[in-house]
């Protein structure tokens, strides 16, 4: 004989019940089959709600009852043909009338006892099993209904009654030994006490009913049919990448369900485990999928970590006090008090010190635990030997589970470092003595991020998902998005990086999509977005709380740069081409670098110097490998290089500047380039990245612009001054040409001092042949003494800048 259990969703409506029938027909052809059914999905909750409303004198319970009635009658009408309906419907109505009377009772006395509640909530299964059996019979199955209250006997701890296995096993053996029907339909969840009063086996208890019966009759197998294709590596509703585990041991399944894998009610395993009956979890809506097989041993070849589960709504309870050291039997009393108060302990921290004991309980039990403990240790508390109990709420547990974890080193290290990198604060840790689970107490708000982080770490073959929050979609931003769109597939395959742009913002609008914004269509989507704001954007990033988050600033805006601190503080990495932060006062620059280190969140700005050229990265690598920078010499302005490459005795200075501006090589205000400010910022950043404390005011700037041009207040006036000072510029050219030199705007850093200015470059110098808008940097170091390390190439332009930002993001991916 086989036992099949169908859960609430599987029997939620007529359409689903037809699917159940197909599965039952298939199974019962060969052998007798017992079917355990849950209440129609959601009905138990409705019954609980109606009871609470009635007992708090709220007449709304009648509406809930009406809804329950409609649901059952409608389902019966859909399943059973009109000619056969009347007897079935009148039976349902009779049961519902009793239910109504019970609820009325609760309403009249304004109270509900656990006993009455059990009687009421059991109606869900009683009704569903009755309707399903009638349907099976009408469909020609040799089927019979059997009330589980006549099979399963319990004590009278209502709400979660304890099974009397001896009596239950006898009753089951007697009944199933003699029953002649091919299909037996049994309500799950309900049972009865020795006195014959209805009891229930706890929420989710239909699984348990099925296991109790399967064990009692030595069934060949127990099948749990539900709405997912097995026991998953993590709750599939929270972790999209989770997948069904093909084969798992009883112990592993028990740990996973104990720590919240709702797909199996935790007590279910015990009865079948002792008989070695395999459990198969299958999907009613995809019956051909393999599902999960639970047996004594898992197939040992699998991964060390089998699954990740979590329990929401946990509270930590701590008992502390200097006087605890001397008092004998504290722990014993502590746990006795909780046991008497019927508080179940979900989590015990292993390293309870002599001064304190700390445990985790379901938040619903926290107040009960506090009251009981404060009372239990009242005497010691009045003597001030023990402090009043401390309760911390809004916590959750995440747990890694696997039989083979004990033979693998470093798993907990990986677990905590992955969580730490993502700013998941860990409040308490416990490792089961069996080493079958490692669990951590974290903030409730971090559950989704923690599960996804751990799943990525242990199950996704090192595919790392990067979540980008992009601000600024101008020239650079637009190119950047196009590059991501183009490279996504390659990166996933080759670098195992899954890059998603989760947010976009320009100066007016912003959009968010947790599953990744469609980059083919981002412009339209952004146009239709909501009003943006730096704070609103940041709040949303925080609210989403995704793992591996990166804030990408493609603006040149100071106020945006001022928000980096917030992101780094939350362990969100920052990548930017905006020079403001890295060239701001040294105190601020170093503060950001420190935050980055403290919160394990990279702060990268490679594109601040030389666009996409790997200048800062090379510098960092030199220093990390123990080299020392002695001198930096560089041409760092693509725009100035363009200007001085094109300015000669046949051209006018102001025309060349205009051309550079028209080509997009200068800042919108060309004075920023020509005055040397932009180059000062760049050499400042290089000096700082080489380890020097320096500020912009300390940089010497030998301006080549006449004072009159420097003093202008508009772009127009600036150009006018260039025209007016034609002779000044021609002289600059002629002076250089007469010495056979070219003009280059050079930045230099040596002996802790930085300066920028126009220089005469002779023919044999590496700068002489610098073309177009190229940049060049010479690093003289303790290792590169005679010949410097040279980096040269295109140092301006949206495309190369975008690819530099991209490179920083890949660096974070490999971090
Ligand atoms: P039923 O009504 O069939 O008893 P449940 O709702 O009790 O179904 O259990 C199935 C649900 O368990 C799934 O829909 C899923 O949301 C949840 N769940 C939580 N953790 C897991 C897990 N690790 N694997 C599969 N399902 C899980
Ligand atoms: N119907 C009960 C509940 O919702 C039992 C079950 O479905 O397993 O908790
Ligand atoms: Mg269930």
List keywords for this structure.
binds adenosine-5'-diphosphate; 30 helices; binds magnesium ion; seven-stranded mixed beta sheet; binds aspartic acid; alpha/beta; single chain; 815 residues; ATP-binding
Number of strands: 30
Please report the distance between the alpha carbons of the first and last residues. 55 Å
Whole-angstrom Rg: 36 Å
| Unreliable segments of 5+ consecutive residues | none
Number of helices: 30
Give the names of the bound compounds.
adenosine-5'-diphosphate, aspartic acid, magnesium ion
Q: Please give the share of residues in helix.
A: 40-55%
State the secondary-structure class: alpha/beta
How are the strands of the largest sheet arranged? 3-5-2-1-8-10-11-9
Note the beta-strand portion.
15-25%
Shape: elongated
The overall pLDDT, averaged over residues, is 93
Task: Characterize the main sheet.
Answer: 8 strands, mixed
Organism: Joostella atrarenae
Family: In the N-terminal section; belongs to the aspartokinase family.
InterPro entries: AceGlu_kinase-like_sf, ACT-like_dom_sf, ACT_Aspartokinase, ACT_dom, AK-HD, AK-HSDH_N, Asp/Glu/Uridylate_kinase, Asp/hSer_DH_NAD-bd
GO molecular function, one term: aspartate kinase activity
